[in-house]
Specification:
single chain, 519 residues
Length: 519
């Protein structure tokens, strides 16, 4: 089974270990197409698929393999039970806005289902219930408020229950959201990629887009290898846009989230989606692992996520995984062992909804999809639907709601904007402090730390053999000092979420290049 490059960290998500995926060649020659899509995750491939189905010639460029970025680190919930709650969305966007949000995520699940059916994609897609339940000490009034708001948003099938009534897990008081979904994300991407190729469009992997230039409505995408793509439209469908230096990064904040996948006996826990109302909240689902050809028995993986925190602002990410495993074992005694542990990155908009449409302060043929807010699968899909309609010069009922240039005039949004951007400002004080350690010899093999060297800060990684590797500790995006992430063996920027490998190579934007060599 082919294992793609993991461009987002050292841990291995279960999806990467349980799917066979296609490989593609890098872009070696310049070409002209209708649309260039940057990013080979679910947002990029869904956009490419929808546009190719409309007869557009599309080129997708991805700096790793398809699904090797943040899409491959999802838990793949397909849900219209939005984690910022409908009663909160009503305050920000009114009842009509909340209704459009519910409709858009529901329609995204429908679109995924129709693509699976039409393209005959074997990815384990299924419909199932979702249950929103309270943590210890939670207030039942929160469920009552959300029930009423969900009904106002058009989700009249949502119902209050004293318990989920599901096999193997008692939620206590909860809301049941019917008609949710789940699938195996990388198997789904495999099917999308196959369908894109069948329609004459191309996917280029190990191809990093570094610049976008637009002159007289013709876009030119420059890649690291030197080849260029020319097109009428460009869609930046990366986790966070690298082509926007400031504006979008004041509207959303990067968070790390953690996942464990535990082996449980097949059928011991009823398949469903489960979410609690804690802050940060926990989210749970199951994935069946079928019997192997060699006769190995089928079993289920219980996939549990949570323990979120701002990127680059946690000294001990392993402790987050330990807490998550403890939470899981306490509530699910069926757990036999933990098979996988990993982390991922989500973008949290200050006004609770993602962004899909024209990039603010840019040419009107450059589009972005970002700000997934923990609903990456459905947001990526509805974002692709919006951008496809914009490129095809059609109206879309959700375009205004998800417009990246929107301003949401509310006290809650203003408070969240101020909180997140003051947090960023505070991180710049690291420029004035000493290092994590005083000398490289204090760094354990396989770990990293920031050193103060005169006026400079240096990111030093000591590899397992004891050899040290140095680069600048200053993020090339907007100049914050990066922090070492010992779980993913990466340098993470605590300001806007750029991430770099232990050797300083770019892993995740908004930076558009790796850490500079140490002075």
């Amino acid at each position: 089974m082919h294992q793609p490059d993991q461009t987002s960290g050292a841990t291995t998500p279960m999806w990467l270990a349980t799917a066979d995926r296609p490989t593609f060649e890098p872009l070696r020659q310049s070409a002209t197409v209708d649309v260039v899509v940057i990013g080979g995750g679910i947002a990029g491939l869904t956009t490419a698929y929808l546009l190719a189905a409309e007869g557009r010639l599309v080129a997708v460029v991805e700096d790793g393999e398809i699904g090797s970025g943040e899409t491959g680190r999802t838990t793949a919930h397909l849900s219209n039970a939005l984690d910022d709650r409908f009663y909160h969305l009503e305050k920000l966007f009114g009842e009509e806005g909340a209704r459009l949000a519910a409709d858009s995520h529901g329609q995204a699940i429908n679109r995924i289902e129709s693509i699976v059916r039409e393209e005959n994609i074997d990815c384990g897609f299924r419909r199932l219930d979702g249950f929103l339940f309270l943590p210890k000490g939670g207030r039942e009034q929160e469920l009552d408020d959300e029930l009423a708001a969900a009904h106002r948003a058009g989700l009249t099938g949502v119902e209050r229950r004293p318990d989920s009534g599901t096999r193997g897990f008692s939620t206590g008081p909860c809301l049941r959201f019917p008609n949710q979904g789940q699938f195996h994300i990388l198997q789904y991407l495999h099917g999308l990629a196959r369908a894109i190729g069948q329609r004459g469009s191309r996917i280029y992997t190990h191809t990093r887009a570094t610049e976008i230039h637009v002159i007289d409505q013709e876009a030119r995408v420059v890649t690291q290898g030197g080849a260029e793509l020319r097109a009428r439209h460009v869609v930046v469908a990366t986790n966070t846009p690298f082509n926007d230096r400031v504006v979008m990064h004041t509207k959303q904040a990067p968070y790390r989230t953690y996942v464990v996948a535990a082996r449980v006996p097949h059928g011991a826990i009823a398949p469903a989606l489960y979410w609690d109302t804690a802050d940060p909240y926990h989210y749970v689902r199951l994935q069946e692992i079928p019997q192997t050809a060699a006769g190995g028995a089928a079993y289920d993986l219980l996939i549990v996520g949570g323990e979120d925190h701002k990127t680059g602002q946690e000294e001990n990410p392993e402790e987050r995984l330990r807490c998550l495993e403890e939470w899981t074992r306490e509530r699910f005694p069926q757990v036999e062992q933990i098979n996988f542990r990993w982390s991922g990155q989500v973008m949290e908009p200050v006004d609770a909804l993602g962004f899909a449409g024209r990039n603010p302060l840019d040419a009107d043929n450059v589009y972005i999809i970002t700000g997934d807010s923990g609903h990456g699968m459905t947001h990526a899909t509805l974002g692709a639907m919006i951008v496809t309609d914009l490129i095809q010069d059609r109206s879309n009922p959700w375009a205004q709601l998800y417009d990246p240039g929107r301003i949401t005039p509310s006290l809650d949004t203003a408070k969240e904007f101020l909180k997140e951007n003051l947090n960023v400002a505070a991180e710049y004080t690291d420029l004035l402090t000493g290092g994590d350690v005083s000398k490289a010899e204090e760094i354990a093999p396989g770990s990293g730390a920031v050193l103060r060297r005169g006026l400079s800060k240096v990111a030093v990684y000591r590899d397992p053999q004891g050899q040290t590797h140095e680069c600048s500790a200053i993020c090339p995006h907007l100049g914050c000092v990066v922090h070492w992430n010992n779980l993913e063996k990466s340098w993470d920027c605590p300001c806007h979420g750029s991430r770099f490998s232990a050797l300083g190579e770019l892993m995740n934007g908004p930076a558009d290049r790796g850490l500079a060599p140490a002075e």
